[in-house]
Amino acid sequence: MRQHKDWFAAHNVDLLVVTFEQEWRAKQYVAEMNVEFPMCIDRERVLYRGYGMERGSKRKVLGLSNWWEYIKLLLAGKRLHRPTDDIYQLGGDVLIDPNGVVKLHFVSDTPIDRPSVAEIQSAVEFQN
């Protein structure tokens, strides 16, 4: 998303990162990954549950396809972090327009399942 921040700014899109991690880990992540977006810590996972983002099964979280994706990230020079909290909590992406209408609601099926930036951009362009 960081690579596309100018596009989002030009389309008046504000991004918010939501995590359930402990505050120290969230701050560490922001510093290490140079996150430029505001972050909300949802320790009670109210937003997660509200948007249907539940915990994944052992097969979905620890499956071979996930490990293969992590290996590809490592081979590309990315630094992975040891999990510090609930590895089974799945996430997603939600796009809400200025009137409070949800325009994109994507619930991840696995830890690596996310919409592409192009899919998110299409939802933004559709609303404009």
Give the ordered list of helices and strands: HEHEHHHEEH
Q: Report the helical percentage.
A: 25-40%
Rg, please? 15 Å
Shape: globular
Adjacency order of strands in the biggest sheet: 1-2
Overall SS class: alpha+beta
| The level-1 CATH class | Alpha Beta
What oligomerization state is this entry in? single chain
- Number of self-contained structural domains: 1
Mean pLDDT: 88
How are the SSEs ordered, and which strands pair?
Blueprint: H1 5-10, E1 17-19, H2 23-33, E2 39-41, H3 46-50, H4 58-62, H5 64-75, E3 92-96, E4 102-107, H6 117-127
Parallel strand pairs: 1-2
Antiparallel strand pairs: 3-4
Entry summary:
The protein has six helices and four strands, in the order H-E-H-E-H-H-H-E-E-H. With 128 residues, it is of the alpha+beta class.
